[in-house]
């Protein structure tokens, strides 16, 4: 009787370990989709690429903070804070979230996978004076994309997060 319970316990342990490995593999795949130029798909390479990318982003943030220290960006903001954000729903009920910090802009939204909304939003951002730094599109279902866009404001950019969000929702 002891051997039977050990066998069941061993099978449960093997099953749990398999589930853990599958979940870990899925998380590494998700992580690799966030990286701009993954070199390889093995776990060690994904971790190394992620660490390098985070360091690169930290360096870029520091550069942006240093370059925006001397500019007069308070007229761009609704408040005296260095950071501001706004969120609006589109006519179809989808959220567009805009966050601004210094000269950096983060736009987050979702759209249908087969629509031209993604391209329209990027085009509008360029038209109003934002320089696209990076984009990330993650497929959530077979019909939905979650989009993150990081951009940099030109010196003469003067929209608030709310204004930018309203502007972009018109093309979404």
TrEMBL record:
Keywords: Nucleus, Transcription, Transcription regulation. Residues 1-21, 64-95 are annotated as: Disordered. The keyword Transcription regulation applies. SMART domains: HLH. Gene3D superfamilies: Helix-loop-helix DNA-binding domain. Residues 8-57 form the BHLH domain. Residues 9-21 have a biased composition (Basic and acidic residues). InterPro entries: bHLH_dom, bHLH_transcription_regulator, HLH_DNA-bd_sf. Signal peptide: none annotated. It is found in: Nucleus. GO terms for cellular component: nucleus. GO terms for molecular function: protein dimerization activity. Pfam families: HLH. PANTHER family: BHLH TRANSCRIPTION FACTOR, MYC-TYPE, BASIC HELIX-LOOP-HELIX (BHLH) DOMAIN-CONTAINING PROTEIN-RELATED. This is Myc-type, basic helix-loop-helix (BHLH) domain-containing protein.
């Amino acid at each position: 009787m002891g051997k039977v319970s050990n066998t069941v316990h061993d099978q449960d342990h093997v099953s749990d370990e398999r589930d853990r490995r599958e979940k870990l593999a899925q998380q590494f795949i998700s992580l690799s989709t966030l990286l701009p130029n993954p070199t390889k798909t093995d776990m060690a390479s994904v971790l190394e690429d992620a660490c390098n990318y985070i360091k690169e982003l930290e360096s870029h943030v520091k550069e942006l903070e240093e370059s925006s220290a001397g500019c007069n960006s308070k007229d761009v903001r609704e408040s005296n804070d260095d950071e501001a954000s706004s969120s609006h729903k589109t006519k179809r009920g989808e959220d567009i979230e805009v966050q601004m910090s210094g000269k950096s802009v983060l736009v987050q939204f979702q759209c249908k996978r087969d629509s031209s909304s993604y391209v329209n939003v990027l085009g509008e951002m360029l038209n109003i004076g934002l320089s696209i730094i990076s984009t990330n599109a993650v497929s959530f279902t077979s019909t939905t994309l979650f989009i993150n866009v990081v951009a940099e404001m030109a010196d003469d950019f003067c929209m608030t997060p709310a204004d930018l969000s309203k502007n972009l929702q018109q093309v979404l």
